Amino acid sequence: MMINIIRDIHGIALARDISEMFIIERIRGEGENQKIPLGNRLGAVSQKLIDAVGIMEANIEDPIEIVNLAELVDLSRRQLERLFKANLEVSPARYYMNRRLLRSRELLKQTNLSTVDIAALCGFKSTPHFSKCYRDHFGVSPRTERKKHPSALSEASIDVEDIPTIPSPVDLDPSLGSVKSDLVRG
To answer: Using one digit for the tens of pLDDT, what is the confidence trace for 62-102?
Structure first.
């Protein structure tokens, strides 16, 4: 029900990402992948497409040129482009950029990293280029995005008065005060 509500309000892409985060089929071993397998997520039947997307996602910080990516999956650049268009309705370069921007959005919402650090972690060579791409894709600047979604990790979001005080043992039982004094003397 909640995924449907999220989809209606925020779109299918966010709903899919949230579904992926909360999928629990069984308790996994330490070395097992947490995400839905790429083939299932993409709805793809082509192993070469799955391999190409896997390489992209493993190389967000240091993006691989599309021609090199095509070589890694044993295709020509043109074959790779046709494969992406036929299955994902987007070029490999656009898909890669979208993945990098989605990762940057996650980092903006979930961390206190600076925009410069996020740009670098998502493969952008300059902050102005990152900001322009982000604004073009999401309709807001990274700075505005961060203001809309302050990080849960932000120290500024914690109000000291909201932190409950834990009473000391002496507060609970005044007779313990004398035990403490005896321990210090002894």
So the answer is: 999 999 999 999 999 999 999 999 988 999 999 999 999 99
Quickly count: other Cβ atoms within 10 Å of residue 42's Cβ. 17
Nearest alpha-carbon partner for 114 in 122, 64, 102, 132: 122
Domains and CATH numbers, the chain: 41-150 (1.10.10.60)
The first and second tokens of residue 74, run together, are: 């044993």
Q: Is 156 exposed, middle or buried (0-12, 13-18, 19+ CB in 10 A)?
A: exposed
Q: Find where tokens 């192993």 sit.
A: 47
Q: CB atoms < 10 A from the CB of 67, how many?
A: 11
The answer to whether 107 and 121 have CB atoms below 8 angstroms apart is yes
If you write DSSP's letter for every residue of 69-82 in order, what string do you get?
Answer: HHHHTT--HHHHHH
Half-sphere exposure of 158 (CA within 13 A, CB side): 7
* 10 Cβ contact partners less than 8 Å away, ≥ 6 residues apart: none
- The pTM score is 0.61
